[in-house]
Every structure is written in C-alpha cells, then in structure tokens.
C-alpha cells in the first residue's frame, strides 16, 4: 500500500483488521510512504487506516479503506 507523504511526519502507524470497526493490529513505518503487508490471508478482506506522527503528536487518521 502507498499513501501521500507528509513532509512534517517522522513516521506512520498503519492500523489494520478484518472489520472496519475492529482495527486491532498496527504497524509502525519510519521514513517511507509505502508498506508491503504480508500478514494477509488471500481469502479474507482487510481494512486499513493510517495516521502520521512526529515529536509534536499524531495526526487524524485517514478514512478506513478496504483491500481484497
């Protein structure tokens, strides 16, 4: 997955799950605006949300998006 880079961000947190209201997994990515998610089961749909962070705090999360 790829997203638009924020020039003020030190990194991003990607929240993921199998339901849009249950994003219990998370992955932290530093200095990149893409991530290859290898934890997926081919038969299931997954939902993701991304938030940027830096020394001042965190941004608002993106809208939830679905990947099949």
Briefly summarize what is shown.
This protein is mostly beta strands and 68 residues long.
Would you mind describing this structure in some detail?
- The protein has 68 residues and is mainly β.
- 0% of the residues lie in helices and 40% in strands.
- The chain contains no helices and 5 strands.
- Strands 1, 2, 3, 4 and 5 form a 5-stranded antiparallel sheet that branches.
- A hairpin with a 7-residue loop joins strand 1 (11-17) and strand 2.
Order of SSEs, N→C? EEEEE
Tell me how many strands there are. Answer: 5
Query: Could you list the spans in which at least 5 consecutive residues all have pLDDT below 50?
Result: none
| β-strand amount | 35-45%
Shape: globular
**Whole-number mean pLDDT:** 92
How far apart the termini lie comes to 12 Å
Briefly note the structural class of the backbone: mainly beta
Count the DSSP helices. Answer: 0
Largest beta-sheet characterization: 5 strands, antiparallel
Helix amount: under 10%
Rg on CA atoms, Å:
12 Å
Features:
five-stranded antiparallel sheet, mainly beta, 68 residues
Task: Summarize the helices and strands and which ones pair or pack.
Layout: E1 11-17, E2 25-30, E3 46-54, E4 57-58, E5 65-67
Antiparallel strand pairs: 1-2, 1-3, 3-4, 3-5
């Amino acid at each position: 997955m790829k997203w638009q880079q924020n020039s003020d961000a030190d990194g991003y947190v990607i929240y993921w799950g199998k339901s849009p209201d249950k994003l219990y997994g998370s992955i932290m990515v530093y200095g990149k605006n893409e991530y290859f998610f290898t934890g997926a089961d081919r038969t299931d749909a997954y939902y993701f949300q991304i938030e940027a962070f830096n020394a001042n705090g965190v941004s608002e999360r993106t809208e939830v998006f679905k990947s099949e």
